[in-house]
Design the sequence.
């Protein structure tokens, strides 16, 4: 089976200006990321804020242009943002936003907004549109009497359901969810995640689920990619990565998730802050905070390599390269 | 009148109920504003039938007669022309100029502002340079030059007044559209695959309309006053044709002896601009579902 969406060595660079007369300094928000998502599969992307997760999600949809690399959807390259082909492709791929209130037009009723993709892509005849909207609202768990409400008259969870219904209206093949539940109450989070998972299973949608919340990702993702400073540092299936994380950053992240009823044992606490992306540390970007850092980590950038069946990591220590380097040094 | 009478006889309770409902929904000041504007529009439309005399008809035996006279309700001016007839004609002329020019400047300015926000780059620079040029140019001097060269005509006057104030709409529309584009809802609609025309007309325009409406309520009185100024200088509406500003200008000379010549049009100008801003404010609130 061919992947639905493939990213090949994506790079996105933001130019930030320092001060009034300071020169622009490049920030590599996404730095050489490759990934592939199969039809019907859920890929979770986790990482701290500023790790380039959201930028990667927008690049997968072709909203942000790539400085280098390529995105292919169903095997064909992504058209340029804003072109007619790009707009037509929106029916196949949709985005669920972090803040549903901002993503909805406050002057239109939610039924109008849910029906908007149908109108834009001329998918459903005008007389059947209301029925399709009602069907979508029922699918995400909105009551029929809420059709005429305005976004500000709904609760946060209901708004996010409306956003999900709008995203699913054109029956997309790919759904990118950018922190869809992080603005919601914990009790509502579970409901919305369940709605997403059910709809995904029923319709066979591939999903890229971006979140900083490991519990949520564990709940919904088949495969997880961990990002640090614009790069993927570890990727494996969800069960494997949560049981035996290999990269020191992944282990630190996973050990930080509290387990109910257990004292926080063996918790790996990271030192310091995530580094400034405009001033990336030499070698492995994680080395200033890594408890296992060796000399080689300071000088050489580790590549993402296979460390088991279906799992990859970018770490010298995990790959056993440090041992060989130290052996060489001893011999010399 | 007949339908109202029928309702009254059929169900007096229901009529009283609907009046009470209307009163609860619409404040008294707004109801007055709507009533006044409707009256002005009706007068403008039916000016030919409402005028008791021709605007140039002189009644030399009753010159400068005071209001309340049986023949001339609002009195007459120095040539014995009926003030009421001239007022009715003035309302028509001034309303055409003010409404025409306000709509012209709002449409023109908003279109350019949206174009600047949509295309950015060269287009935006060009629009902003034009807006700066317009703002820096003393408008009165420009209108004097244009009217002196081409002579005064109704169409030219409306176009010239429409040119007044467009740069404000352009700036406001550009700023609002840029900030709306940065907000989630516009980006979300773009991501749904909507064409730019749909994004701008269906989503951004209704969301920024309230500010533009407020701006229109500010431009409307300014245009009436501008027209009065030009007419006063003899470059606006040419006698014997008349406008509100024109009447105020010529009535000034008889301010002490026959104040009614000037007071009637001045009161109309004041009440119309007041009604416009009352109704405009109310309309802005009504158009915003979050304020309901």
Sequence:
């Amino acid at each position: 089976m061919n992947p639905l969406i493939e990213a090949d060595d994506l790079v996105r660079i933001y130019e930030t200006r320092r001060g009034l007369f300071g020169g622009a300094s490049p920030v590599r928000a996404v730095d050489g990321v490759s990934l592939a998502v199969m039809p019907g599969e859920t890929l979770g992307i986790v990482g701290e804020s500023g790790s380039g997760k959201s930028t990667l999600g927008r690049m997968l949809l072709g909203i942000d242009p790539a400085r280098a690399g390529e995105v292919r959807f169903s095997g064909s390259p992504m058209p340029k943002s804003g072109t007619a082909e790009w707009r037509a492709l929106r029916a196949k791929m949709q985005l669920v936003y972090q803040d549903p209130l901002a993503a909805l037009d406050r002057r239109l009723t939610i039924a109008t907004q849910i029906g908007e993709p149908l109108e834009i892509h001329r998918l459903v005849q005008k007389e059947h549109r209301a029925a399709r909207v009602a069907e979508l609202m029922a699918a995400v768990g909105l009551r029929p009497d809420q059709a005429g409400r305005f976004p500000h008259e709904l609760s946060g969870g209901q708004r996010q359901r409306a956003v999900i219904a709008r995203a699913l209206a054109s029956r997309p093949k790919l759904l990118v969810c950018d922190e869809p539940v992080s603005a919601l109450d914990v009790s509502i989070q579970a409901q919305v995640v369940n709605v997403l998972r059910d709809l995904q299973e029923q319709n066979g949608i591939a999903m890229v689920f971006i979140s900083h919340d490991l519990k949520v990702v564990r709940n919904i993702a088949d495969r997880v990619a961990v990002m640090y400073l614009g790069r993927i540092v570890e990727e494996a299936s969800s069960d494997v990565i949560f049981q035996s994380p290999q990269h020191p950053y992944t282990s630190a992240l996973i050990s930080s998730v509290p387990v109910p009823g257990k004292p926080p044992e063996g918790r790996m606490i990271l030192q310091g802050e995530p580094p400034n992306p405009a001033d990336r540390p030499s070698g492995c970007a994680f080395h200033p905070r890594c408890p296992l850092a060796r000399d080689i980590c300071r000088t050489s950038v580790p590549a993402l390599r296979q460390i088991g069946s279906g799992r990859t990591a970018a770490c010298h220590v995990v790959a056993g390269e440090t041992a060989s380097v130290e052996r060489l040094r001893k011999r010399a | 009148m007949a339908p109202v009478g029928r309702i009254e006889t059929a169900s007096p309770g229901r009529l009283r109920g609907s009046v009470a409902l209307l009163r609860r929904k619409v404040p008294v000041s707004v109801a007055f504003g709507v009533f006044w504007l409707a009256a002005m529009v009706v007068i403008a439309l039916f000016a030919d039938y409402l005028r008791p005399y021709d605007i140039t008809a002189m009644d030399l035996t009753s010159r400068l007669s005071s209001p309340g006279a049986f023949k001339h309700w609002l009195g007459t001016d120095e040539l014995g022309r009926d003030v009421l007839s001239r007022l009715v004609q003035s309302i028509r002329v001034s309303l055409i100029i003010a409404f025409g020019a306000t709509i012209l400047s709002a449409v023109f300015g908003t279109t350019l502002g949206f174009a600047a926000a949509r295309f950015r780059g060269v287009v935006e620079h060009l629009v902003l340079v034009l807006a700066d040029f317009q703002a820096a140019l003393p408008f009165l001097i420009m209108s004097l030059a244009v009217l002196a060269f081409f002579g005064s005509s109704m169409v030219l006057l409306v176009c010239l007044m429409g040119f007044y104030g467009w740069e404000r709409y352009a700036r406001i529309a550009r700023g609002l559209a840029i900030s709306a584009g940065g907000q989630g809802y516009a980006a979300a609609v773009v991501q749904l695959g909507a064409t730019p025309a749909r994004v701008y007309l269906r989503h951004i325009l209704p969301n920024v309309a309230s500010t533009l409406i407020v701006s229109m309520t500010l431009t409307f009185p300014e245009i009436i006053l501008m027209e009065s100024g030009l007419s006063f200088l003899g470059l606006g509406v040419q006698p014997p044709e008349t406008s509100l500003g024109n009447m105020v200008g010529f009535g000034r000379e008889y301010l002490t002896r026959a104040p009614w010549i000037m007071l009637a049009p001045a009161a109309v100008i004041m009440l119309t601009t007041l009604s416009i801003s009352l109704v405009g404010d109310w309309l802005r609130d009504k158009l915003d579902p979050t304020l309901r």
Summary: Chain B touches chain A at residues 183-185, 187-189, 191-195, 198, 203, 206-207, 287-290 (CB under 8 Å). Chain B has one domain: 37-173+208-291.
